[in-house]
Design goal:
Mean pLDDT of chain A: 63
Radius of gyration of chain B: 18 Å
Number of domains of chain B: 2
Number of strands of chain B: 0
Low-confidence stretches of chain A: 74-81, 102-219
Largest sheet of chain B: none
Number of helices of chain A: 13
Order of helices and strands of chain B: HHHHHHHH
Shape of chain B: globular
Largest interface: A-B, 50 and 60 residues
Oligomer: heterodimer
Number of strands of chain A: 7
Amino acid sequence: MSHVDEGTLHAFLDGALPLGEHGQVDAHLAECPDCRQRLAEARALIARADALLALAQPAERSAPPLHELRRRPLWWRVRWPIAWAASVTLAIGLGWMWRGREARQALVASAERDTLPQTVAVGQLREEPRRQAAQERAPARHGEAPRRDVAVARPQAARADSAAPAANAASGVVPIVTPPIAASDRAPAIKPAASAPVPATVDGMIVTGAAQVVHRGRAAAVMSSTWPIIQRGSATRLLGTELVMIPGVPVKDIRMSPYADGVVLVEQAIDSTLVIQLFQRRADAAAADSGASSGYERQLAAQRDRVERLARFVGPLRVEIAGPLGTDSLSKLLDLVK
Amino acid sequence: MPDDLAEVYRTTYHALVRFLYRKVWDAERAADLAQEAFARALVHQPANARGWLFVVAANLARDEGRRRLRERRHLTLLKAEPETTGEHGEPEEAIDLEARRARVRAALEGLTPRDREVLLLWDAGLPYEEIAAQTGLAPGAVGTTLARARRRLVEAYEAGSEETHVARG
């Protein structure tokens, strides 16, 4: 046998040669000092490369049980634009269904954003958006988003409802007042304007009821895809303290604000389509720049996605929770943090 | 066969995380993507689960890479951040380890995609035949490719450390 080439030597050392060939190489090596020398070099090279690769590996953490992967739909983490699209589609469908059942007349004249008699209100919007009022808010802000949705009084229906990045939710931290709905078996319960505090515009629709907050928007408060993902350690260093998160809820991402304002965002997934965002930064930093000047708050104000937000001080942090849930739910979630 | 998959999960999960880590360079993300790959395997029940998983993982990592590319300008922000905390006295070895890890990363990223893929798949425990099947190499060429990849990795790493020393001196 002629000399053994380097590739074959590596395969030999890797134990990857077919039995016959392995024997031939073995036999050749026994009588060829040159090849033995090169074998030793190859062995050293492999050891060195392995050692280098070993430097580049994450700390080994235990794997979650396999059956948990089955239960947790993970695919949306990576593919959640698809989830988004699917929920928009679903929402449009549901919206039409509801309209068909509950607002037949409205359906007829549904081509443009008319005022739906059955619309249920969205609580009371914050001072500033309220002043800017109806007409000027009417134009659609998010091109293809379904803006014809019907607000429904039942939270479940609302959850199934659209992912339309909806209207003008409060851009501040004032909790939205949510008078409880007069319970009715037949959804959607319609509360006439009797107790309605202020007529508000929601995505171009006038709503006057005083029912429970209803959410079509599952949109995140801040479109966080432009927020770089960071590791927990970096986040902790940035905040100077442990992160605040809701126990028992899977953490989707930890991100940092691209505005260099020291805001860390923890996104936690209640289920495959429902993400709660926890914005947090040092309370002293939050006090230093008065609220709205912060980059992410500007982003929020600009996007006006309809989500509820609640802010609270937790230890040394100012934490703001945002998500497409009622304020009472958010409040409960935030309570869990402590 | 779910039982098979459970076994593959037990034996391969960490290797898959490692494989992914060397592509996305973020431990959390690597774990996420590995779990994602297994979650998909649970749905698809592929015949050759291990090979299938690495193909899916490589695709997931590539998608991730594209997304990262878009976010690169934000990442420069991040790079600035650990440096400031470093001043507060991280242990010397930690910094050293971090520097060496960065050099390994640079060396790996300097390899041709095929060399890198073969090296990472081998390190993840795949046999030559499976590496050949995944990369489209002839089975006889895996050894040669691996030999080249290893040599270039070591050379690039050493060149990187010389550079650092020159820069320091």
